[in-house]
Amino acid sequence: MSTTARLREAGRTPPVDISLPLAAGQPLLIQQWLRILPGKRLVGRGEWNGRQVLAKLFIATGAERHWQRESVGIQALQRAGITTPALLDSGELPGGGCYLLTEYLPGAQSLQQHWEQLADRSPGNAEALAILRDALLAIAAMHAQGLAQTDLHLGNFLQDQQRLYVIDGDAIEVAEPGKPLPLTTAQANLALFFAQLMPEWDAQVDHLLPSYLDANPLHGLDRQQLLAQIHKQRQTRLNNFLDKTLRDCSQFAVHRSFDRFAVVLRSAQQALAPLLADPDSAFSGTPLLKDGGSSTVTMATVGGREVVVKRYNIKGFGHWLTRFWRPSRAWHSWLAAWRLQFLGIATPTPLAMIERRIGLWRRQAWLISEYCPGPNLLQQLGETGAAVPDSTTADALLGVFQQVVDAGISHGDFKATNLLWHDRQVVLIDLDVMQAHRSEAGRRKAWAKDRARFIRNWPAGSALAQWLESVMPR
Q: Which of 32, 157, 262, 313 would staple 45 via disulfide (CB 3.0–4.6 Å)?
């Protein structure tokens, strides 16, 4: 069996310290895998011709197209004078597939890594703004030379000391070399970049655009049209991400059979394995957090990590007849939680979801999530509502309310016990009936219900209820 075939068969666990004979005669020794797309593409750090290199191996049948796109993209960046890691060698692998070697930058970090290391990524933070401006300068340089990066996110910009590198040649598209991109193409590409950010950053677009326009004056840029494109691109990204949460990929592991569907966050798969095999084991000999007819909730400790396990019960044959033909409440809650995570609205990370089935018919279901130790808002703010919250709590409350309104979602059961206070944040839980509304009328009506329900948690004449009535978004 050829080396390429063995790498395909290895799936997610290709061997390290593997030596690959290359067409040029110098072998490539892989020392560490950095990214694995099973059976398709492998990215690793290696040694070749006495130097450290970044190796991309295209091992799928018919992978030549992606290899060629990568090579052409890197060469286009180089011709345009855009800083990118040097292309060192490229060719076919013995036994099928292709390889591409570029300069390895051992001290480099992506702008995404810098972004994630920030303690404060809120709009207006000076360090966050600086990162985005660096990216926009690189985007402007590409646009001015007729290039567009079609997979535009902070992870595709590497910073090594004071130099910023553009990577991922496979996503580089060339319009007319040396000529600026047309307005419509450049504006759509900018919208793709801004759509990677949380919605609250949309208000900062006017402050960020000058960094781009100083390097590439884009005459005729329409701000309102750009914001509309950002919203559309973000919705597309959200839809694609939610689809991803239900299929086997690098982030999620999925198991399907005649009597079961299970999805788990891949990073938690090993730790949760016993619970995935028997989710009801969590309910044995453990005090319950909730023991209702439609659902039962408990806590479990798995691998030193506290998790919440929620079982969605079928109360009888009549209840099953209303449920079997549609996605379970666990399925709905799984998608709702990942929607909130995508939008930057705090909720405990969903770790796994399991449905018991008969073919396509659903039965019981379970949702496993991280445990949030904070008190609920009824405990945090007091049942009598005698006082208004302090400024920190007030800012967090109003912030999450505005996020919910801007996202066009409704919780559907906005009891104070379904919002927790943890780490200076308001955390939403119990997402069984959360909805995302497409029409403006629908979202306004649903928010009015959520708003009224939340205020009713406290006596009508209390200071807190009156304060909420005056400050909650309408």
A: 32
